[in-house]
Design brief:
The protein is mainly α. The chain contains 3 helices and 2 strands; from the N terminus they run ββααα. Helix content is 59%, strand content 5%.
Length: 86
């Protein structure tokens, strides 16, 4: 008595050998992945350049002024003081 194998590559599916079907699924998945990446890459290429590293010293100064020292918070005096204390 032989024990049937559970190896999907040894079977046929709709007349297609399991090995061929496995490679076909892999190649279709690879193609779909490439197509999705290509579409996203096209969108990135069409976008405007990101100027986040221009005027770096000015941006660091604004980070310190508005982000760390919370310069705008005292507009609403009570809420601003509590926010700065937090």
């Amino acid at each position: 008595m032989t024990i049937p194998t559970l190896d999907p590559a040894t079977h046929t599916y709709l007349g297609i050998p399991g090995v061929v079907l496995g490679w076909l699924i892999f190649l279709v998945g690879l193609g779909l992945f490439g197509w999705i990446i290509y579409r996203r890459w096209r969108l990135l290429r069409a976008a405007a350049p990101d100027p986040r590293f221009f005027h770096i010293l000015k941006r660091i100064g604004q980070l310190i002024t508005y982000g760390i020292l919370q310069r705008r918070q005292p507009r609403y005096l009570t809420a601003g003081i509590i926010h700065i204390m937090i």
